[in-house]
Amino acid sequence: MGLITSPRNARVANALALRTRAGRRDSLRFLVEGPGPVREALRARVVVELFRDPSATGEVAEAAAAAEAASVPVRDVTPPVLAKLAATVSPRGPVAVCDRVDVPIDRLEPGRGVVVVLVEIRDPGNLGAVIRSADAAGAAGVVVSDASVDVYNEKVVRASAGSLFHVPIVRRGRIADIATSLRDRGCALYAAAADGESNVFEARAARPVALFLGNEAHGLAPEVRASMDGSLRVPMRGGAESLNLAAAAAVMLFALARRGGKV
Amino acid sequence: MGLITSPRNARVANALALRTRAGRRDSLRFLVEGPGPVREALRARVVVELFRDPSATGEVAEAAAAAEAASVPVRDVTPPVLAKLAATVSPRGPVAVCDRVDVPIDRLEPGRGVVVVLVEIRDPGNLGAVIRSADAAGAAGVVVSDASVDVYNEKVVRASAGSLFHVPIVRRGRIADIATSLRDRGCALYAAAADGESNVFEARAARPVALFLGNEAHGLAPEVRASMDGSLRVPMRGGAESLNLAAAAAVMLFALARRGGKV
Predict the structure, then answer these.
(1) How far A125 CA sits from the closest chain B CA (Å)?
(2) Which of A207, B69, B206, B214 is deepest in the core (most CB within 10 A)?
(3) Contact assessment for residue B141 and residue B115, using Cβ atoms and an 8 Å cutoff
(4) Residues 6 or more apart in contact with residue A174 via CB below 8 angstroms
(5) Measured between CB atoms, does B44 come within 8 Å of chain A?
(6) Is residue B262 part of a domain?
(7) ipTM
């Protein structure tokens, strides 16, 4: 196939639609950009099509070769077409069209580690960073509630640095349903809160933890928190009233991971 | 004094210059926005002038009243003038002109906690989040090297959520000079690295720690790392190769804080 020079090319136009939430919802696909994340997507066997600048060398060319070796169609595009497909300012590519990776909540295995539940999280950088930390801490999964930023938003994908393909992700769902499902599967439900009852470094119990983190500005709703088995805090020493959501999640996930994901 | 209606008003123009790095460098002042951060700035006694929309109520009015009580000049401006001064999209104000808060490196007290050293950090959100985590973990200070984002950048100030006024900040300086100064003051110098020699949760020693974190993309230069006393890692379990810089800093700072800031 020849070089695609127009953003109005049908394949390019279909991929461009994935830059919007509506386009991702309709096609059940999303975009992944850059050699590292594309490599992780190829390992996860979810890449359906790859766009690259054929004059690119190094890591970009290696990612395209890996796609070809996996029988993924590789489309050659001009740098201006690549720039349209990419979300970054100075894109090197490649850009991959991927099938969604999220799983139903009953596929999670809470015994393997903490389940992180994000409620109405709004900042894509925060969501991506929490997915990355959850992966690194060996979490059993990340559940993202309704009214949160889209897991497949390009900034979330970028901030997750490939971890979107490593840790099981459950998307959408009402908080009450998520809570019931996780409780049925043996989890103890804990709210992360600046004024939590138990120091996350010292809390002790025997069940796998589901850790609920609320919205960046106003945290978890009081009724959600009241329905939990307890609440955990990061012990604060200085003058700060709270931590950034992604920082709090990272500290708690690694503290809990040291006890096998249980409190 | 009456209501200021023009952004060309001399006081407003002087404050507007603080939206640029050059303007902050020339005047040794910076801007702080929003009731919470302004309250912290007032507590730190660094506010020299406050701009507010006199029709604003609630927290904004309370912050302005606190400024007046502290004999800080309060300037009434129209909403369009406030919007010019503010960095946020829907500003409520108030906006405070503040004197810088950074201190010389010899003012740090390493025995009180970890000293964080940030080398060529580029993302303002990361720098602000690290300052906030350092405050919350009771760190002895944050040192920001040359070639890093400006500590007084509006995004750094916002992301620090007031912690810029709680934890001692040292800005600028060559890495070699920073290292020498901290070593002279009894610190053991450790590099934070994904492949660090020692697990940060298990490392043991008797001296206060200075924890060096490198640039988001390429970490610490090999020669900087080679000059340290050792390196620390966050133990990784999943498929992630590394953590987001702010997440890694938070996990390490709280792990070290549990041992009094020593390894």
Answers:
(1) 10
(2) B214
(3) yes
(4) A145, A146
(5) no
(6) no
(7) 0.91
Tell me the percentage of chain B whose pLDDT exceeds 90: 87
Rg of chain A over Cα atoms, rounded to whole angstroms, equals 20
Query: Domain ends where: B99, B122, B141?
Result: B99
- Whether A88 is covered by a domain: the verdict is yes
Q: Does B54 touch chain A (CB under 8 A)?
A: no
| Helical H segments across chain A, by residue range | 10-16, 21-27, 35-43, 58-69, 79-85, 124-136, 154-160, 175-184, 222-226, 245-257
* High-pLDDT (> 70) share of chain A, %: 98
Q: What is the CATH number of the domain that holds A238?
A: 3.40.1280.10
B39: containing domain: 10-99
Q: Is B37 on the interface with A (CB under 8 A)?
A: no
B263 has pLDDT over 70:
no
Q: How many CB pairs under 8 A join A and B?
A: 127
CB < 8 Å to A254, chain B: 201, 234-235, 251, 255
> Which of A99, A134, A149 is the last residue before a domain boundary?
A99
Q: Can you give the pLDDT at residue A89?
A: 77
Residues A131 and A243 in one domain: yes
Q: Which residue shows structure tokens 């927290």?
A: B59
Residues of A in contact with B244 (CB under 8 A): 129, 132-133, 159, 161, 246, 250
Does B212 score more than 70 pLDDT?
yes
CB contact under 8 A, A246 and B246: yes
Comparing CB atoms, the residue among B235, B239, B246 nearest residue A135 is B239
pTM: 0.93
